[in-house]
Specification:
Number of strands: 4
Helix content: 40-55%
Low-confidence stretches: none
Distance between the termini: 31 Å
Order of helices and strands: EHEHEEHHHHHHH
Number of helices: 9
CATH topology of the largest domain: Glutathione S-transferase Yfyf (Class Pi), Chain A, domain 2
Structural class: alpha+beta
Largest sheet: 4 strands, mixed
Strand content: 5-15%
Strand order of the largest sheet: 2-1-3-4
CATH architecture of the largest domain: Up-down Bundle
Mean pLDDT: 96
Radius of gyration: 17 Å
């Protein structure tokens, strides 16, 4: 059985979605925010971050995008991502890498600005730059969504749920919904998805 270390409002949202869509049983362990975590948790998450997924063989993996890609590979019958070798697989990998390397770090810089500057008065500039980077990245994805229903292929994948999670973290949600109509179109579909509604009750990613 899997073990998912997570907390509400974290990147564990998309991993919970993946496990649920795969009908994979898992034990959920909520990890409190603390600067002094148990050593046992640091052993599997050296940066003291969630989510962490412990696999049935006892090994653990961090990084939400990597976890999603792995779960898609281990549960191909669930259709969590385009199959290896399918034409849409390249888009899936591209956008998962793009979102995890461009958008997710920008979100972290905004909400944890003091980590990213040694200047006590520099957090405002860090936040401003982070929002600018978010806006640039979301604009790229919005353009890519024109003429297509989903980010990768003709069916919903974990890339779409990952995108919905990230745009929900934008500090100006109303602005985001107006600025990127293609993302809002996709996000609206997911907001109406029964599983997303269920997960949103505990994660509170967007207003119900």
């Amino acid at each position: 059985m899997y073990k998912l270390y997570t907390r509400p409002g974290s990147g564990g949202f998309v991993v919970e979605a993946a496990l649920a869509l795969a009908n994979a049983p898992f034990e959920q362990i909520d990890v409190p925010k603390t600067d002094r975590p148990d050593q046992a948790f640091l052993d599997i998450s050296p940066l003291n971050q969630v989510p962490v997924l412990t696999l049935p063989d006892g090994s653990s993996i961090t990084e939400s995008a990597a976890i999603c890609i792995l779960l898609a590979e281990q549960h191909p019958e669930a259709g969590l991502a385009p199959a290896a070798g399918a034409p849409a697989r390249a888009d899936f990998l591209r956008w998962m890498a793009f979102m995890s390397s461009v958008l997710y770090p920008a979100v972290l810089r905004f909400y944890y600005a003091p980590r990213y500057t040694a200047d006590a008065d520099g957090t405002k500039a860090v936040k401003q730059a982070a929002v600018a980077e978010m806006d640039r990245g979301f604009a790229v994805i919005d353009t890519a969504l024109r003429g297509r229903d989903w980010l990768a292929g003709k069916e919903m994948s974990l890339a779409d749920i990952y995108l919905a999670m990230l745009v929900a973290w934008h500090p100006e949600t109303d602005k985001a919904r107006a600025a990127w109509p293609e993302i809002e179109r996709l996000w609206a579909r997911l907001r109406g998805h029964p599983l997303m509604k269920t997960l949103n009750t505990s994660h509170e990613m967007w207003p119900a």
